[in-house]
Amino acid sequence: MNKIGKSKYTVAQIGCGGRGRIHLDGWIKNSDRCELVAICDLEQTRMEEALKGQKAAPSRYTDADKMLKEMHPDILCFSTPPKIRMELVKLAVKHKVKGLVFEKPMALSLNAASKMTRMCNDNHIKAAVSFQHKYLTSFQKLKEILDKGEIGKVLRIEASCQAGLSLLGSHYIDYALWANGNSKAQWVVGHVHGRELLKDQQHPSPNYVMGRIGFENGVFAIIECGQLSAMYMGKRGLCIDNRLTVYGALGYAWCDTDGGWGLFAPRTGGELLLGKGESWIIQQSQLLQPLFVRDLIAWLDDDSKPHPCNINNSYAGYEIMEAICLSAMDRIRIDLPLKPQKSGQDIFNRMRMELPECHERFGI
């Protein structure tokens, strides 16, 4: 039995679009410990489509506040645009949910990210942000290699992705933290250029971003994302052309979201050992989301088992993301932690106004 006295946790979800359906599948595949009691979307047809072929028969709502008031779920999940995240976290607090799951980027300003994190912590809500790629078999292989110490003491981490800062860059900052045992970042130096991709209201990003991060444990990381980042596949693969590489005193290891991984270490005898599994596109509903949900259940059961994607880790990643941009705009090193500004312009609006257009060679 868990701490709220039930064998199952009740779940309500807001948003039944593409990512929403992946979340729904995660709850349904954990039906031994989860009961999906309600879903909410502004479009009835989208709810029906999301549940097509599923055995689950949750109540349908078009009003999130009404759903939470009537259903009193233990867990709330929402898959919605970033601009309304704050209001839904407030609803979670209002209706006293125990667990909360939502998408990245967790916010579009440091002030909002800080406030949401504080609201969850102050109200004992166990919140997790969907940086779900760390459940990929390729990422798990990298974690196994690191945990066994096969490359020796970690010295440097490099993370690169073709997709933009808010889209996949936020993931890879989180994964760099994860690979480094979530050691705290002490400082950041960044470069950004190009404002065309900042027009995207859900995943605003400069055309290209590069940052160097120094951690408390002496490790440093280099992050790059956007149109001038390294291309490992020989062509622009956007969400699958990416790589997380960890360099140690004895060798190095890497993984990507297309299922690939590599190892150069003493046991490989001077050769690069390569492995290949299925990409995130195939694994996301079959594997990633069910495992993500399982870790949330374990955390709800036991305070000593925090989710790998818990909101405090996610906030640390968001702070780094904003610090990279702030460093670039102010042309200085940024020391962490940052102090959220209660008023004033957010960094994305500032970049929209101040960065020049670039019209990169890959074409905008």
Describe the structure.
The protein is an alpha/beta fold. The chain has 2 domains: 9-132 and 284-309, NAD(P)-binding Rossmann-like Domain (Rossmann fold); 133-279, Dihydrodipicolinate Reductase, domain 2. It has 10 helices and 15 strands. It has helices spanning 18-28, 44-50, 64-71, 85-94, 110-122, 137-147, 165-179, 280-301, 311-330, 347-354, and strands at residues 9-14, 34-40, 59-61, 75-78, 99-102, 126-129, 154-161, 185-193, 208-215, 220-226, 242-248, 252-255, 260-264, 273-276, 334-335. The strands form 2 sheets. The protein has a 9-stranded mixed beta sheet. It has a 6-stranded parallel beta sheet with strand order 3-2-1-4-5-6, with helices on both faces. Helix 1 (18-28) packs across helix 8 and helix 7 (165-179) crosses helix 9.
What's the order of the H and E elements? EHEHEHEHEHEHEHEEEEEEEHHEH
Measured distance between first and last alpha carbons: 55 Å
Provide the CATH top-level class of the largest domain.
Alpha Beta
**Major sheet details:** 9 strands, mixed
The share of residues in extended strands comes to 15-25%
CATH architectural designation of the largest domain: 3-Layer(aba) Sandwich
Q: What's the CATH topology name of the largest domain?
A: Rossmann fold
Please name the defining characteristics of this protein.
single chain; 364 residues; alpha/beta; Rossmann fold; six-stranded parallel beta sheet
Outline the fold blueprint.
Elements: E1 9-14, H1 18-28, E2 34-40, H2 44-50, E3 59-61, H3 64-71, E4 75-78, H4 85-94, E5 99-102, H5 110-122, E6 126-129, H6 137-147, E7 154-161, H7 165-179, E8 185-193, E9 208-215, E10 220-226, E11 242-248, E12 252-255, E13 260-264, E14 273-276, H8 280-301, H9 311-330, E15 334-335, H10 347-354
Parallel strand pairs: 1-2, 1-4, 2-3, 4-5, 5-6, 7-10
Antiparallel strand pairs: 7-11, 8-9, 8-15, 9-10, 11-12, 12-13, 13-14
